[in-house]
Design goal:
This protein has 2 helices and 5 strands, in the order H-E-E-E-H-E-E. The protein is of the alpha/beta class. 18% of the residues are buried.
């Protein structure tokens, strides 16, 4: 389990250009992937990261996309949130000092 809510200090440190990063609800039934703002909202609302798994999907021409699956827990409830990588998400992972587990099932499209 990750450290006890490192976001309690200052949630706005993660992206100063977006004023509203902690009110973006995500539901897996409506969207296949979440964004960094959805992850930030979950963390702000008390969800803790249990594990972060990185999967890379390769395409022709050596292009790839990285998806991070965050396994989250709050009040005995768990959820899995797949998040598409971008500089904001990479920075968040780095600043929180998250340990990344590489998936065995990286895929080639």
């Amino acid at each position: 389990m990750m450290s006890a809510n490192p976001l309690a200090t200052n949630v706005t440190n993660f992206h100063v250009q977006y004023l509203d990063v902690t009110s973006q609800h995500w539901n897996p039934e409506s969207e296949s992937f979440a964004g960094g703002d959805h992850l930030m909202t979950a963390l702000h609302n008390g969800w803790e990261v249990l594990r972060c798994v990185e999967t890379r999907h390769w395409f022709a021409g050596m292009r790839s996309i990285t998806i991070y699956r965050f396994d989250l827990k709050r009040d005995g409830e768990t959820m899995s949130m797949p998040v598409l990588t971008n500089p904001y998400v990479s920075r968040l992972i780095h600043q929180l000092g998250m340990e990344i587990v590489e998936a065995d099932d990286s895929k080639t499209a």
